[in-house]
């Protein structure tokens, strides 16, 4: 949930130098790719005015960039490639992301692709019917509240891009973490949870395409491993954080 630092470097490169500029950054990019402080980077060119370029670099933090990368041998090699163009820089600043962010409608959310609130309600109903009959998981969920399945449906819906109903009615990420404190969940129980959730997804009629299921299972693996940690004796509850938002990741929806 860390808010990383985004550095923007804006260039104005004369048209006759643009090919050499792009070639230099292609070589320099190898240093960014090797830097542990660099999360990702992208060089874009303006469509309306070909002389304008913007380099976006996401750093783990401003301090990591300045005290880490810039004092490393990688930066020396990086600068050697792009030095001829330093005088063409019009802006070079670090920016922190704000809470104003989101995605457009060109790619549906996982929530919408799955079928919305009704799909997740079916999923959790089928899932917890299995859980209470399962020898491995039943002890963890002894005394399960009648509304538990509905609450988890709200959680999953929000995680996969639906409305913030869990945060608004149950208390957000901290509330979910608190549910696991002291539970002592084992690896065998975690694995059974993931397997039963996949079985429930089949029975509840959730999409079976590879792209959706890979994202769905990725969240189940990530979330259950955190649950094991927070249920353990050495767990430290995190600072208040928003509910995680899960997206398609490497494989967007396949539309033929």
UniProtKB/TrEMBL annotation:
It comes from the Bacteria. Keywords: Heme, Iron, Metal-binding, Monooxygenase, Oxidoreductase, Transport. Heme binds at residues 151, 175. CDD domains: TrHb2_O-like. It holds the Pfam family ABM. Residues 236-256 are annotated as: Disordered. The keyword Oxidoreductase applies. This is Antibiotic biosynthesis monooxygenase. It comes from Streptomyces sporangiiformans. The lineage of its organism: Bacteria, Bacillati, Actinomycetota, Actinomycetes, Kitasatosporales.
